[in-house]
Amino acid sequence: MQFGFCYIPDYYESLHGSYSAWYRRLLHEWGTADALGYDALWIAEHRLAGYGFCSTPVVAQAIADRTERIRIGTAVSLITQRHPVLAAEDWATVDLLSNGRLNFGIGRGILAYDFAAVGVPSSESRERFQEAWEVIRRLWSEKQVTHNGKYWSFEDHTLGPRPLQQPTPPVYVACIATPESYQWAGENGCHLMVAPFLLKSTAQQAEYLDLYRESLTKAGHDVRDFQILGNYHLALFEDEQQSEQVDGHIFQYLNFLNSVQTNQKQHLDSKHYAAYESGETLWKDAQELRDNRAVVGTPQQCIDRIGELSSACGLTGWMFHINYGGVPHERVIDQMTLFAEEVMPTFKTIPQAKRPEIHVRRQSIPLSSAAPEFTTAARARRITELATSYTRSCVLFAANKLDLFTLIGKETKTSIDVGRQLGTNSRSIERLLDACTSLELLSKENGEYRLTAESREMLDRNSPNCIADWIAHWADMMMKGNWQHLAEHVQSGKPLDLDWSDFAFDSRRPSIQNWIDGMHQMAMAGHADILSTVEPLHGAATLLDVGGGPGTYSIVMCRHYPELQATILDSTEVSDVACEIVRREGLDERVHFRIGDFCTADLQETYDVIMLSNVLHMVDKPGAMAMLKNAHRHLSPQGVLLVQEWMVSDEGTDSTLSTLFNIHMLINPNGDLYRWDQLQQMIERAGFAVTKTLETGGVYDVLVAKKSQP
Ligand SMILES: C[S@@+](CC[C@H](N)C(=O)[O-])C[C@H]1O[C@@H](n2cnc3c(N)ncnc32)[C@H](O)[C@@H]1O
Questions:
Q1: Would 474 be classed as within a structural domain?
Q2: Which residue stretches of 176-264 are H helix?
């Protein structure tokens, strides 16, 4: 079950002070929601002053900068009211800058004021909505788009950049009272956000949702892959006595909405918004809303209400209004905290807060001193968690070795089913399945386990993006490799001499096979597409893939550029395995192999493109400089150098994968990782000019360079 907050706040200068003070408090609320483990924040777009937000991409980016893991949603983005190319640009950029955390919520818009402000007739909203989404979807997922539509037309446009989440970020359609909207969302494979409090009854909402699910199924989708989020006002209090304070805010918000309705410059065209007009009276009665249409009460009352409403409509998640009608900031923080501590755990495992510095105590905290006060017990717990974090890796490695994720696949299985299939003890399997559930690799309901969307994509061997061999490679490294002797390696300053024949965690497969197949899978899971499109290489005839390993990047590049011939330079043992992959992919005519050490090799020819993908870190700094200088010698005058690498942060101390991988490189082949500026300097010292840098949001990042000196 997902939980998040929907922000369509009503702003009053007398209550909230200046807009900048208001935004500061909102940012604090959003940072708190992130630290407390909520799934998403949703912001609404409106042009009417004091209602929601007018410049939502800017607000979304501010949330992204302030938070680390929470998803950032629009509820909704008014795609009917802007040129879709501009909307596609803004939201793709937010997706990139937030590291792929965008949930794109879209709707037609329901305020006549909003339509009037930009001169768009609300009677055109349905057609504009469908056309705008078609344009955005294509620009996000296709390289070059020509569109001839009723409202917008353009030719051969390439969006730069496209979103990180491909083909598109998850799309949510806001549906309230128009059956066609539910049907359209299902037919187009979109998630849903609904507002049952605006309808006559829960039964009416359930009917609309049946229509949505039917449309999903008819269009060939599996309804279990889709989220239906319910939009409700939340008022949570520790005891019944506080309940009166709640009413004031709900009444205030409803009065505000009424004034929005009556003060609009023009009314919505009733032919196109018929159901809204008939439903309008329902949301004028605040008392009715408080008693029957909102989630109001003590934690236990809220738990009961959430359970009851979720099963009545089949909701998979919630987006609560928590900041409305002038609810004070401190009370918003208190409610977020109380809900996270006492309601949420009934429905889900809460991810650990990654930023203890904005850990929030139950009592209201002044904005200026949101400092932590961890107890001794909490500190002891954190250190214990660090000490035992290896158990998480072991759980993943064991589940991967037993191939549990492929075995469960698209089905729902009990531990007895899984135990029977593996011919093992169901008690021990249940422990392992529960541990996977605690790591959010599985979900469990009524004793039955299912893959999460993430594990289905990344760990089920039937998925095209599966990285199970990459995980097996890490199992070899962690369980059998030299991490066990880290202290000794640090003392001696020497790496371990790897013997690939004696290294396998799973004796059925040699470790070199896991390494090379694992790198192939990692490249296929996003990075090869990124690297082959970062720079146009039309006209290039030859590519040298230095330390090409499995050859994946050469394969994908050759597919992209039909004129290209690639040469992989690597060791004999690696090339023997890679040959098989190249043959399997049908490219043995265009991908060739040369054996040699690139720091010293003189290949007697030049290439139009030289690729150094994840090789500079395999050697020490003098070795990396030798590689770069050799690349300069072998690159044709107008050629392109592509460098892909693990990057460390400015200080090399943050909690990214690279900081730990830097240790891995110390104790394995004795290589080095670099910061952006260091790598750029090295590339420039070798005689290149860096023309492009790309933070991919994945494991590795990219630099493009050309020769600055012949
Ligand atoms: C981490 S793998 C990267 C493989 C591939 N380029 C990728 O990004 O998936 C490093 C590869 O570089 C090769 N290698 C390391 N040093 C090399 C050198 N000096 N010359 C040629 N190959 C080298 C290794 O054998 C290995 O295949």
A1: no
A2: 179-187, 202-218, 243-263
